């Protein structure tokens, strides 16, 4: 018998999960019996069973005494999971819409509170691969002229995220240059991924070592990803800086490495 707590992951409450497991163990049960077997307060059991029925997990039988029986888990639980997935998708879409609406309303308040001379207004600090990935994808989508990228292992984005990150500006015919270090070239899957994008206009050169991951967008904004020094699985903190002077200085460093780099095709051979 599974732990009723596992059913909570499908969107049931603790009482609903316990009641459903109790119903599975018998052909039919009266509410009072469900309350005893599932450890549910008697004053709550009718509400719990009504909620289970609404979710398609039990059926009520109106006879001399009202009883309940469990629905077949083979179909009921899959339908429940699909309904929960759809509900979460709706919540996600609503959350994104709300975030964008509030950002549009609160952006001017934020700007007015900082003033034009606040140096921190041009700096974003990101932690966690999900936040870094979403910001990187947004910066790539917003680029208008060029992207210069320093790619080094370990990767933060998945191959699919990297594919989206690089294909968007390449699809708009932006100048896109990528510097890869030796470990990237030694990874067969990453080398194949880079080779896949070369026909789309990606210019690639390799160097033995890159000190950090970096992307420069339109010579105006920079995304720098720094690996945290603590041991264990790689963790990163990323900083986005919107400053033309810094972008220009890091662009000079990129250009120096680019001029000394080896063409990707030759490095592969």
Distance between the termini: 58 Å
CATH topology of the largest domain, by name, is: Endonuclease, Chain A
Question: Can you tell me the residue ranges where pLDDT is under 50 for at least 5 consecutive residues?
Answer: none
What's the overall geometry?
elongated
Return the CATH architecture of the largest domain: 2-Layer Sandwich
Q: What portion of the residues fall into strands of 2 or more residues? A: 15-25%
How much helix is in the residues?
40-55%
What is the spatial order of strands in the main beta sheet?
3-9-8-7-4-5-6-10
Largest sheet: 8 strands, mixed
Which features does this protein show?
alpha+beta, Arc Repressor Mutant, subunit A, 11 helices, single chain, 53% helix, Endonuclease, Chain A, 2 domains, 269 residues, 19% strand
Write the layout of secondary structure elements.
Layout: H1 4-8, H2 14-24, H3 31-38, H4 42-54, E1 58-61, E2 67-70, H5 73-114, E3 123-127, H6 129-142, E4 146-151, H7 159-171, E5 175-181, H8 182-186, H9 188-197, E6 203-207, E7 213-217, E8 221-227, E9 236-242, H10 244-260, E10 262-263, H11 264-268
Parallel strand pairs: 4-5, 5-6
Antiparallel strand pairs: 1-2, 3-9, 4-7, 6-10, 7-8, 8-9
Helix pairs in contact: 2-3, 2-4, 3-4, 6-7
Please give a structural write-up.
Strand 7 and strand 8 form a beta hairpin. The chain is an alpha+beta fold and 269 residues long. The model has no long low-confidence stretch (mean pLDDT 85). It is 53% helix and 19% strand. The chain folds into two domains: 1-117, Winged helix-like DNA-binding domain superfamily/Winged helix DNA-binding domain (Arc Repressor Mutant, subunit A); 118-268, Endonuclease Chain A (Endonuclease, Chain A). It is elongated. An eight-stranded mixed beta sheet has the order 3-9-8-7-4-5-6-10, with helices on both faces. A two-stranded antiparallel ribbon has the order 1-2. The longest helix has 42 residues, at 73-114. The relative contact order is 0.09.
């Amino acid at each position: 018998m599974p732990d009723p707590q596992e059913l909570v992951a499908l969107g049931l409450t603790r009482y609903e999960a316990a009641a459903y497991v109790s119903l599975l163990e018998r052909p039919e049960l009266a509410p009072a019996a469900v309350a005893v077997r599932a450890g549910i307060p008697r004053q709550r059991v009718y509400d719990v069973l009504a909620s289970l029925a609404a979710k398609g997990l039990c059926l009520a039988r109106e006879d001399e005494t009202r009883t309940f029986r469990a629905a077949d888990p083979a179909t009921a639980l899959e339908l429940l999971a699909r309904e929960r997935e759809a509900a979460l998708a709706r919540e996600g879409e609503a959350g994104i819409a709300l975030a964008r609406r509030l950002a549009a309303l609160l952006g001017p308040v934020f700007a007015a509170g900082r003033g034009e001379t606040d140096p921190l207004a041009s700096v974003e600090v990101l932690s966690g691969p999900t936040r870094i990935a979403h910001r990187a994808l947004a910066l790539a989508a917003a680029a208008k002229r060029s992207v210069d990228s320093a790619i080094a292992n370990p990767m933060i984005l998945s191959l699919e995220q990297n594919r989206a990150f690089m294909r968007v500006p390449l699809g708009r015919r932006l100048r896109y240059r990528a510097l890869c270090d030796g470990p990237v070239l030694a990874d067969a899957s990453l080398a194949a991924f880079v080779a896949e994008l070369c026909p789309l206009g990606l210019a690639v050169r390799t160097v033995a070592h890159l000190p950090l991951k970096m992307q420069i967008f339109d010579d105006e904004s920079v995304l720098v990803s720094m690996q945290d020094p603590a041991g264990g699985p790689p963790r990163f903190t990323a900083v986005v800086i919107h400053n033309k002077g810094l972008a220009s200085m890091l662009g000079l460093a990129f250009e120096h490495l680019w001029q000394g780099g080896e063409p990707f095709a030759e490095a592969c051979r």
